[in-house]
Amino acid sequence: MKEIVVKASRQYSVLIENGIFSRAGALCREVLRGNRVCVVSDSNVAPLYGARLEQSLREAGFDPVSYTIPAGEESKNPGQLVALAEFLAEREFTRSDGLIALGGGVTGDLTGLCASLFLRGVGCVQIPTSVLAAVDSSVGGKTAVNLRAGKNLFGSFFQPRRVICDPELFQTLPPEIVADGFAEIVKYGMLADTGLFKRLEERCEDMELIVAECVEYKRQIVMEDEFDTGRRKLLNLGHTVGHAIEAASDFRISHGSAVAMGMVAVTCYAAKAGLCAADLPKRLTDLLESYRLPVTCPFSAEELIRSALHDKKREGDRIDLVIPREIGNCEIYPIPVSEMAVVLKEGLG
Q1: Could you give the CA distance from residue 212 to residue 141 in angstroms, rounded to a whole number?
Q2: How far is Cα 84 from Cα 115, in angstroms, rounded to an integer?
Q3: Contact assessment for residue 300 and residue 348, using Cβ atoms and an 8 Å cutoff
C-alpha cells in the first residue's frame, strides 16, 4: 500500500492500493471516533458500491446511513447542500459522527463542504471512485458547490481525515469518465516533470503509480500553500478557461473535457505570445487526443469572456492565468482583466 502523508492544518494520509476498498470500514474506524456515519453517494455509484461499503462499516462497528444525490454536476448546488445538512440534523448527528464521500468530484466536494459546515465541523473521509477525484479533488481540502454566477464560488478549505483510493474501482467507469480524469492527470504531467508526461505518452497503465505521482505533487503544493494564495494556483492550469467553457455549456461539457480545452487554449496563447516553444501546443494536443479528450472549444471568445471574469481566481482588476513555459515548468501569469479577451481570442483562434 502506498501511503502519502499530507501535513496541512490537519495531517492525514492518502492510501492508494488495488483492493483496499474491501478494508474501507476498518480504515475509517482508525480516523473517525463516533459510531454513526453517513455515506454520501450518487445515483450511479450507490448501486455499485454502497452496500459493500455499508457492510464493511458495520463490521468495523459503525451504524451507517446512506444519502444518495442525483448523478451529475447539477447536484453540486446550495439546495442539495442544505438538503444533506437537514438529513443529518433530522437523524440527530453529533460532532462525533462523520461523513463518508463515496464517489467522484461532485460527491466529494458537496460532502466535504457539508462536513465543514454541519455543527461547525464533523469528520469526513473521502473514497474517490473516479480517476478525476482520485488524482485531484479528493486531496487538498478544497470543498465547494456552484452558484448561478459560476463554478465553485461557495465553499471552504476543509481537510479530510483520510483519503482511501482503490484504483480497481475505476474498472466500472464508462470510457468518457475515465478520459475526464486523464485531463487532470495530463495537467499534472504538464506541471510536475517530463517523467509523468512521457509515461502518459507511452500509455503507462499502472494506475497505482499514476495516481500516486499526481497525489505526491499535489501534497507538496498543498503543504506549501494550503489556502491557495500563492503556488497552489499552479493547479489551476486550464481551469480559468475550462470553468468558463463548462458554464457556457450549462455544464453539458464535463469538467475534464473543459479543462483539456482550457489547457490547449492557454498553451496556444503562450506559444503565440512567445512564452513557450512553438511546438508545445501540438505535443499537448496529441496527448489529450490520444486519451479521447476534446481539444477544440465550441464557443467563441465573446461567449466565454463573461464567465471567465466571474472565475474565483480573479482579484480585483487582475486574473491569474497559469501559463506553460515547457513541460514541467508552468508559471502563474497575472494579467489585467481587460486583456482576458485577447488571451481567449489568441488561444481559441
Answers
A1: 17
A2: 10
A3: yes
Counting every residue written for the chain, the total comes to 349
Q: H-type helices in 162-279, by residue range?
A: 175-191, 194-201, 207-224, 239-248, 255-272
Grid cell, residue 272, equals 503565440
Question: Side chain identity at 231, as an amino acid letter?
Answer: R
Give 244-288 pLDDT, tens digit per residue. Answer: 999 899 889 999 999 999 999 999 999 999 999 999 999 999 999
Report the 10 Å Cβ neighbour count for 304: 26
pTM of the model: 0.93
Nearest to 65 by CA among 88, 86, 44: 88
CA 108 to chain CA centroid, nearest Å: 9
Cell 465573446 -> residue: 302
**Interstrand relation of 150-157 and 142-147 (parallel, antiparallel or unpaired):** antiparallel
Q: Is 117 left (phi over 0), alpha (psi -120 to 50) or beta?
A: alpha
User: H-helix or E-strand containing 348?
Assistant: helix 340-348
**β-pair partners for 66:** 39
Which residues contact residue 192 at a Cβ distance below 8 angstroms, ignoring those fewer than 6 apart?
A: 213, 214, 217, 328
Distance from C-alpha of 234 to C-alpha of 238, rounded to nearest angstrom: 10
Residues 80 and 144 sit within 8 Å (Cβ to Cβ): no
